[in-house]
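#struct-help
A.M.: can someone run this one for me? Single chain, 124 residues.
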Amino acid sequence: MKIAVASDNGMVAGHFGHCENFNVFHVEGEQVVNHEVVANPGHKPGFLPNFLNDLGVNVIIAGGMGGGAVQIFNEKGIEVVVGVRNTAKEAAELYLKGELESTGSICHEHQHAHDHGEHGNCGH
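D.P.: on it. Structure tokens below:
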């Protein structure tokens, strides 16, 4: 299993699409056995969910996420956990313990806009 965490400076990113990178935790059983950092290749509508699916990700953790991305992840069978405010490593470990709950923080205001400058964190 692979858990991806949208991250900025090691913390869970407030907005999935605009994170610096993805911390990808490789899990066997209930233990993290490997960890890699994958740079965010860029924010284009529909691109990142497919990019992470191609990496074999089973779970995506972020602070907030647009509805379009959530829909694609759902179609791919990838679990979405949003509304998280921990370090990337803590988020993955809490998820494995079953202690991480999604608050359903979906960003609706700008999901079709291309300039997220003033609302980069989606207000979370």
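A.M.: thanks! The beta strands are 2-8, 11-12, 21-28, 31-39, 59-62, 65-66, 79-82, 106-107.
D.P.: also worth noting: The two ends are 28 Å apart (CA to CA).
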